[in-house]
Amino acid sequence: MCTSLRDCTVKGLFNCDDLIAELKPAHPPRLYGSAGCETWSVRFSPDGSYFAWSMGHGIVKLLSWPLTSKDSTEAGSSEEKTLNCGQTVWALAFGPCLSTRVDALHQNGRDHELLLAIGLNNGAIQVWVASTGSPRITLTGHQAPVRDLVFTPNGSLTLVSASRDKTLRIWDLAKKGASPHVLRGPDYWIFRCSISPDSSVIASVCNLDSKVYLWSLRSYTFMRHLTYDHERTMASCDFSQDGALLAIASYHSTTGWWLDLWDPYRADLLTRVEDCEVCAYRSDNLLTSLSFSPVGLLLAFKDYRALRIWDVEQDKLVTDTDHNRAGGVCCAFHPHGGVIATGCRDGHVKLWRVPHLVSSLKHLCRIALRFSISTYQVEALPLPKKILEYLTYRDMPKQKIVYCKEHCR
């Protein structure tokens, strides 16, 4: 089954009035897109009280949320902290991170102060205290730029880093001086990593490797691959709120970008969203990032043409915006929903209002069940076929196409 996600179907749902704020770097680039000025990462803190963005030139801005009116126009508010890292910043991560699906009584460890981890071009990871904007520790070991950072969503201070040195490292920041666990195997740069909501699995993708790596966070061992039949460049990955779906972004110069939803338990490809099939030039539009919303079943994905948000439950686009800003490279949802931030190659950040959608009762039941039960366990239940297909997300169309504005029919 193939369906189309056409821009014209969401026209009028999301426009310039939904732009909440635009943050501009203090020192704009001399030439648009010049190296060193990119906003490679934007992040909200787990409680939603802080917003961090890498504004290029080795500077990270840490702002209190919600923003003041002055924050909305320029960097320079008294409410902000400027972190001078001295190196190009590739990745940001707040921790500890508490999963919305884990009972507070079962969160790991005691209460910790909020930290901001920053991955740098020289392979170092700087850890700062968010409340004071002061450095706490520097982690060394990576031999190349740290491209991604993620804290485990179980309330602990376990940090996973992905690097161009082809390794993942797992750090326990609660144990001073402890050596990290090193995961080796890929032959290419590791671009992105994501941790399942139950903190049991790490997914990682490499730039030129046409497969996804799944690792056990409990035994620190490789588990399995999710393999593509055709050569792909992997761009990003993210788990859904219940861990039952793993979204993968990839692209190729001749076939355009793909956004795939996998079952990480059975390594089954459930559905594929493809770039506009009639565009003449595929290589000018890359899918750069994606992110599942912590509220509902919304999946945001950013390419060079636009920011789009797909309501997976209703199978429709609910957002299609930012058509005038080329070179978007990252996006991140606010933990309470309602807002999404996007970062660009020129150091700008835009904050957009996300449509307020209420999940159905049956989907809320599915999330509660799937958080603690694998696909294999669901399939063993004595339930009708249609219910089993719904619980395992196998009732979705197998293929979709996102048409650009020019070719919307």
TrEMBL record:
Any single GO BP term: intracellular signal transduction
Pfam families hit by this protein: SOCS_box, WD40
WD repeat ranges per the UniProt record: 139-173, 332-354
Superkingdom of source: Eukaryota
Alphabetized InterPro entries for the sequence: Quinoprotein_ADH-like_sf (IPR011047), SOCS_box (IPR001496), SOCS_box-like_dom_sf (IPR036036), WD40/YVTN_repeat-like_dom_sf (IPR015943), WD40_repeat_CS (IPR019775), WD40_rpt (IPR001680), WSB_SOCS-box_domain (IPR051983)
PROSITE patterns in UniProt: SOCS, WD_REPEATS_1, WD_REPEATS_2, WD_REPEATS_REGION
Annotated ranges, domain SOCS box: 360-397
Protein name (Swiss-Prot/TrEMBL): SOCS box domain-containing protein
Pathways per UniProt: Protein modification; protein ubiquitination
Keyword annotations from UniProtKB, A to Z: Repeat, Ubl conjugation pathway, WD repeat
Coiled-coil features, chain-numbered ranges: none
Source organism of the structure: Onychostoma macrolepis
